[in-house]
User: What shape does this take?
Amino acid sequence: MGLPTGTKAEREIVSALIDVYDTALFDLDGVIYLGPKVVPGAAEAMAELRRREKTVMYVTNNAARPVQVVIDQLNRLGISADVDNVLTSAQVAAAALQAELPAGARVLVCGSANLAVLMGEAGFQVVAGADDHPAAVIQGYDPDLSWRQLDEAALAIQQGAGWYATNADASRPTDRGLVPGVGGAIALLSTALGGAPMVFGKPYRPMLTEALRRTGAKHPIFVGDRLDTDIVGAVAAGIPSLLVLSGAHGKGDLVSATPAAHPSCIGADVTALLKPPRTANVTLGRATCGNQSAAVVAGKVTITSVPATQEEQLDALWALTQLAWGDPQLDASEALSVLELLP
Assistant: This one.
């Protein structure tokens, strides 16, 4: 696993994972940065992709911040970016709603000021409450979200307003750990009212469809840290994916992932794009990756090698993952505990 196509001979001469792709699509939070801090090695990796003339697009579900703020942060972190290679779920939502609603329709924004501005620029009349009889409610992440905003959204939905959301991320990775995402606010309304909104961001198709349209990608790879949004979205869109362990999801999440969330390959961080692709060979009850191996023993997945470095532990993880995916009933807990260098 790890390469989309090619003969055995072609795969053997690939010196870096990115070599077989023309475009790399990146999530941001947990992949390129953690809060105000750059993920180690990310700036250098992005510079090398530019040197190799690869197309890069940053695709973020974070709807709270204007695109220019995202661009400014990337530039401060030493990463070149502009309006042509940053795409947010708020932008996708605004464009999608133009096709869903009549021009000038009233929209109640249960999200950030940035989302409200984009709705206004899309030609909608932004209103503050249910008494304004909005045609739609759009939810997005807002660090200053209030109960009163949720109340008004709930009342508007009960009055018949269409219900939409920029994305449904349950959490956000930061430099201090995971914090709630807009998915929590969506869950509150779902608990109170039943049902769920139409969602535009990852893992749903509108966002990746727009990213592919903008880049003109022929052979893209998606790089993300979340199985439930980044990887599920890539799998659904038929795009190869790289799961990096620098953000929200770790080794335990990977091993227990359902087929809809199986990445094509894994790495510690985005620098994995510049390393040889990690491949696993699986035979009956045994898997190998590099010089690491795992085996099924008495209903458990056991690492049968001695992975000392982080890269060796990643190889061992990829080997045991193949066996665990083949039989979800296998116990991988002891094997995972050996991989102390991996989150």
